[in-house]
Amino acid sequence: MPKTYAYLGPEGTFTEAALRMLMPDAPAGSLVPCSGVDAVFSAVRGGAVDGGAVPLENSVEGGVTATIAELINGDPLLIGAEVAVPVEFTLFARPGTMLSDVKRVATHSHALAQCRGWLAANLPHADTFTVSSTAAAAQAVSEPGAPYDAAISARLAGERYGLAPLVSGVGDRADAATRFVYLRRPGALPEPTGADRTSLVAFLPDDHAGALVDLLNQFAVRGVNLTRLESRPTGDGLGTYCFCIDADGHVAEARVGEALMGLRRVCREVRFLGSYPRADADTELTPLLPRGGTSNADFLAAEQWLARIRAGAVA
Ligand SMILES: O=C(O)C(=O)Cc1ccccc1
């Protein structure tokens, strides 16, 4: 059976563009639009599709709460791949609409957060509305009796729903990018590539001084670089948090594996979210080489030394 992939729909979302980058060979008809991030997770968890794409974080607005909540809770899924997509926002309306006619603007909450400055300067009296995606906003604007005058979306979405571009580049930061992840059910991990990322959620055992330092030390002492640390409420009452962590490296590498074992010892629970190739593997700025004493060979040599001295040797 041909594989199918869910994404945050409808057609024309940034997530669809990301999924097409992640699955360049996916045949037409294999991409399944879903009405929300939760619906993508359900489709993957329930086996209705082979995998799915969701937005995870944005360089301006930070984490996508709906995605992070689903990663933390419910049946665990694994991240199988990631892609970072530059996002450019365009204000679209029904053909014939003038900018001065725009009183009600709809878009996704993350898009709104990234266009606030432009809206305040150019449409200060317009009301804004958040909907499930930028393409859902464009679709809504295109329908007869639409409750909105304009949508902020990707160029593709505006065109897909027969709208006219009013203003392009309405984002406040031209360099904004969003990181999307490909979700899959648990199963064999991709082989290490030498430039991988490992994602996990760590739940502390109790509230004590230095608990977060204990957690971070598991990575620090093994030379594992962290690329993201985000605290999220567990839902078990005020002041109870878990930590969403992205680290350089693959769990098959000794230093990452040892750091995860250390975490497992000092945490109440560790939810492993996968090891997968980094989207920015070719970026020279990112330190991909382990620090001295933390390479796989260093860990192996130390393990063999321990075995020798345990057996009575002196070195
Ligand atoms: O609504 C979309 O098109 C999405 O894919 C979610 C989103 C919204 C804003 C920036 C990046 C992704």
Helix-strand topology string: EHEHEEHEEEHEHEHEEEHEEHEH
CATH level 1 class label of the largest domain = Alpha Beta
For the secondary structure, the number of strands is 15
The CATH superfamily of the largest domain bears the name ACT domain
Radius of gyration: 23 Å
Distinct ligand kinds:
3-phenylpyruvic acid
Count of alpha and pi helical runs? 9
Q: Any low-confidence stretches, pLDDT <50, length ≥5?
A: none
Could you estimate the helical fraction of the residues in percent? 25-40%
Q: Which percent band covers the strand fraction?
A: 25-35%
> How confident is the prediction overall: mean pLDDT?
94
What structural class do helix, strand and pairing data support?
Answer: alpha/beta
Query: What's the overall geometry?
Result: elongated
Question: What do you see in this structure?
Answer:
It catalyses: prephenate + H(+) = 3-phenylpyruvate + CO2 + H2O. One of its GO terms (cellular component) is cytoplasm. It is a single chain. The protein is an alpha/beta fold and 315 residues long. 30% of the residues lie in helices and 28% in strands. The protein contains nine helices and 15 strands. It has helices at residues 14-22, 37-46, 65-72, 109-122, 134-142, 155-160, 211-220, 254-266, 296-310, and strands at 5-8, 31-34, 51-58, 62-63, 78-86, 90-93, 104-107, 127-130, 150-153, 164-168, 177-184, 196-203, 226-233, 241-248, 269-277. Strand 3 (51-58) and strand 4 form a beta hairpin. Residues 8, 13-15, 55, 58, 87, 108, 110-111, 133-135, 178 line the site of 3-phenylpyruvic acid (PPY). 3-phenylpyruvic acid (PPY) is lined by residues 8, 13-15, 55, 58, 87, 108, 110-111, 133-135, 178.
